[in-house]
Structures are given as structure tokens and as C-alpha cells.
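Sample entry was shown:
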Amino acid sequence: MTERLADISARIDGIRQLCAVVNAMRGIAAARAQQARSQLVAVDSYAATIAVAIGRALALVASGRPDGALQSTRPALVLFCAEQGFAGALSERILDAVGAELATSDLFLIGTRGGAVATERGVTAGWTSPMPSHSLGVPKLAGRIAEALYAHIATGDIGRLDAVFSEWQPGPGIHVERRRLFPFDMSAFPRPTDANVPLLNLASETLLSELTVDYMYAQLCDAALHAFAAENEARMEAMASAHNQIERQLSSLLATQRHVRQEEITSEIIELAAGETASQSDCESVRHLTPHRR
């Protein structure tokens, strides 16, 4: 009985240590998600400023599009998947969202865990990169993606480019978002409402081309930050579920420990009572066998 109680106590200690690890992972994920969401505010402001500048530049360009845009029918996808485990089916949902397009598109896949899932499905990406461990590394990642994309766009290998990523919102939770990166819908950029013509030091076509490069960079940063935050939100949900399961197991083990301890106490009482009864019986036997002295 004592050995069984020691085993249960050891299991309880192990589960409590596991609970501490799960809570730590949950806290780290929450902090990273919060940091990414705070950075999204700055990225959105940056993208909005560039969008206004593009609208003003479009008013000065007769063609309404930057020069050098080659026509091609080949589609491409930038897939932002999970970098690490314990994020649920985040990567699977991204791959499921594009379905048959995986076989007909050039793939730029972000996320080590997502790459492993894609390999298991027999999907090969032409360009891959890990997701940074901290959101401060997202701008550098967006720069690498943009450089790889423009190398293909410049040669006419890509005619259409979409980014597919997870986005978290309060209430609905995580859903898959798809955003067009190339070619841009120029009618979506706001046109100037005033008659003031900006003073330019560059040709309007060159300015528009460089602004669209910056805008794509901003969109890649935005998508990567959303994906980073969503992965950590998914990890928080997974750790919350694990925490609840651990609490249930711990509660069950504590109940078992109390039951075993009670059984052990009861056994000791019974043994003591039996010993006392045997002692009294021995005393009575000795008394009857001993001759009485006058």
C-alpha cells in the first residue's frame, strides 16, 4: 500500500511540473501574440500612407500602372503556415484553403512546421523560409520574401500572386485570409481630392513603381504579423486545452491519493485493534494458567 501511495505521489509531482511548463508556454504565446498585434497598428498606418501616395502618383501616370509589368498566366501563392508545433491544425487549414491550386501554382511557403505538413502531402514548394521566433524579425522576413518574389515577377514567371495566411479576430477566432499581392487593383487606391500637384524629383512612372514595391513589402509584413499572431493564439488555445486536461487528471489522482491514504490509515487501525485484541487475549490466558497464591 505504501509503495502504491508513493507511486501516486510521484505521478502527481510529474503532472504538476508538466502543468507549470504548459502555463509557461501559454504565457509566452500570449505575450508574442500581443506584441504582434501592437505592431500591426504601425504596419497598417504605413501601408495606408503608401496607398495615399500611390493614389496621387496614379493621377500623374497615363497608363495607370507601373512600367515593366510583364504579362503571364502563371499563378503563385505565398503560404504563411506554422513555424512550431502545438498550434493545432493551423498549417493544415492553410493548405486545405488553396486545395488543387497547390499543384498548379509556384509556392512560397513560410513556416517549418507547415513545410513538414506539405511534405507529408507530397507538396513541394519552390521557395521556403522559417517564420521568425519573434515578431521583430518579421520585417527582415518580408524583405527576403519580396526579393524572391520580384526575381520571378521581373522575368515574367508570375502573372498573379496571392498571400494566404491565418488571421485571428476576437469572437470568431482564427480564419484563413487570402489577399491579392500582384497585380494590384489600381482602382482601389484613393485618388486625391484636392488639385494640388506634388513636387516630384523622380519620373512619375519610376515613383509609382517604387511605391508599389514598398506597398507589397507592407502587405507582406501585415500578412506575416497576422500569421504570427494567429499561430500564437492557436498555441494559447492548445495550451488552455492541455491545462484543462491536466487539471482533470490531477484532480483524479488527488482523489485516488486521498482514497489510498484512507485505506492505509484504516488498515493501520485494524492492525492496531487486532494487536490490542490479541494482547488482551494473551493476558487472559496467562491469568487463567497462573495458580492463585493465598
